[in-house]
Amino acid sequence: MGNESVDSAVRVRGLVKRYGSKTAVDGLDLDVRAHTVTAVLGPNGAGKTTTIETCEGYRRPDGGTVRVLGLDPLADAAALRPRIGVMLQSGGVYSGARADEMLRHMAKLHAHPLDVDALIERLGLGSCGRTTYRRLSGGQQQRLALAMAVVGRPELVFLDEPTAGLDPQARRATWDLVRELRADGVTVVLTTHFMQEAEELADDVAIVDAGRVAAQGSPEQLCRGGAENTLRFTGRAGLDLGSLLKALPDGTAAAEPLPGTYRITGTVDPQLLATVTTWCAQHGVMPEGISVERHTLEDVFMELTGKELRS
Amino acid sequence: MSTGTYSPKPGAAPVGRMIAAQTALETRMLLRNGEQLLLTVIIPSLLLVLFSTVDIVDTGADKAVDFLAPGVLALAVLSTAFTGQAIATGFERRYGVLKRLGASPLPRWALMTAKTLAVLVTEVLQVALLTAIALALGWSPEGNPASVLLLLILGTAAFSGLGLLMAGTLKAEATLAAANLVFLLLLVGGGVIVPLDKFPEPARSLLELLPISALSDGLRDVLQNGASMPWGNALILAVWAVLGLGAAAKFFRWE
User: Are the folds of A2-224 and A229-294 the same?
Assistant: First the structure.
């Protein structure tokens, strides 16, 4: 228990949040391990932002418990706020403030801020010059919000859709920064629509749908668990599939949907691939066009939610 | 764990430093905004010069500037503490500035303190400028400066409460429109440039209860007539301050 609470950066149990008659979050559990990147993935209206904003202390839960760095985001707000960094989905800056001015201001609210000039350089905000916030491009506004979230050297940052609306290059730059944060021991929680973002960045992915976490785990675990992969090859027609199946682990299926076209479904790992090719070698079969169709996070998401992510 | 650029080292700055930084930023935002300057500097200055030099309104005073200067000082407080603060805060709420600062180490009370200090800094600049203009126009102020100061502070509290109430409850666009409209109505009907005795009863008695009337009339009592302390006007301002700040504290929504 003691160790668990030390290693847990965020612990949400049975969170319920209603807006009027609409239930935005409906018994959600979420765990974020310290020093990792957790992606909260889900379609619009799934309850991602409500969950994050409850962790940030903006929303009062209608049910359940929320602990962030072991603290209650509302009751312990004064102790928690200096330790977290927040990137809102949009806004948060005086429309008449310049990027460097706002960032320097946020730095002054913290005891040991990052070097502001270096951060401006790192995120390419130097080109904003004397332009005020309302005239910055969407990408510049996003990067400024990201800089504001990290400038206070927080232990934990919440990034709400950090790359929404960014071009691919700016998205890469943001991903690089998230990786650097993680490497330096910062815990990152981000929400996203982008499957690739979750796959690239996250140690853990929480798939949220209809106000609940449908599944949580590493991308590999999620793609493996429950989801079957497919191995295909072509060869001589009429191979003895019963003999092949004997060599393969239980739960594997083999079929010849068209003469000479073979499909093996199950947990396709390197061992299974080796078994299949060995069997082919023993039977004098050249497996041509051999291909493994890995289940992607997208497939898992579709299976769990019956929905496609907007991207 | 290795120490890198982003290695966590969290902590809030000392609260005094946070308030100083927030006050400086808020003041810069106020002074940088063109529409705000029109309201807080240009309109009061123009009214003072125009009505002092051109005989448009019969003020009943020997020198028009002796009547107008206290009224324009009251208008300056109205423009900054009420209109300017309501519009700026309304848009800060709309654009998530208040929300974002709410997740920073800056406590809410410190943010409101900084906003008040920014208003006071702006008012000091306004009073200095308007006093210089009025003196150049031949103004000869009377009375006790301490009474003037107390009235200005009570007026600031009353208008801040009402401005924040509006900013924290209405949509930003509605606040923009309403705050400007109220400014205009109070300019005309609050004894700023038009003496209240020009209005018939019972309108006049009602208008006298407005915070702008209490402030302009109180300032005039001291600065024009040399009264020591107009307690009646001070009481009206204090009541508005308690009601306004109390309602703002209760109904203000941060998002």
Answer: no
Q: Which residues of A touch B104 (CB under 8 A)?
A: 81, 86, 106, 109, 152
Is 3.30.70 the CATH number for A229-294?
Answer: yes
Question: How distant is the Cα of B24 from the closest Cα of chain A, in angstroms?
Answer: 9
User: Over the stretch B193-211, which tens digit does the pLDDT of each residue have?
Assistant: 888 888 888 888 999 999 9
ipTM of the prediction: 0.88
CB contacts, 8 Å: B253 with chain A: none
Q: What is the pLDDT of residues A81-138, one digit of tens each?
A: 999 999 999 999 999 999 999 999 999 999 999 999 999 999 989 888 889 999 999 9
Kindly report whether the peptide bond that precedes residue B202 is cis, defined as omega within 30 degrees of 0. Answer: yes
Give the per-residue pLDDT at A35: 95
Residues of chain B with pLDDT under 70: 1-2, 61
Domain regions of chain B by residue span: 15-251
What are the residues whose beta carbons fall under 8 Å from the beta carbon of B6, sequence distance 6 or more? A114, A150, A153, A180, A181, A184, A185, A186
Min distance B211 CA to chain A CA atoms (Å) = 30
What are the boundaries of each domain within chain A? Answer: 2-224, 229-294
Give this prediction's pTM. Answer: 0.84
Beta pairing class for A156-160 and A187-192: parallel
- By the CB < 8 Å criterion, does A111 face chain B? yes
Q: A2-224, what's its fold?
A: Rossmann fold (3.40.50)
Q: B109: nearest CA in chain A?
A: A78
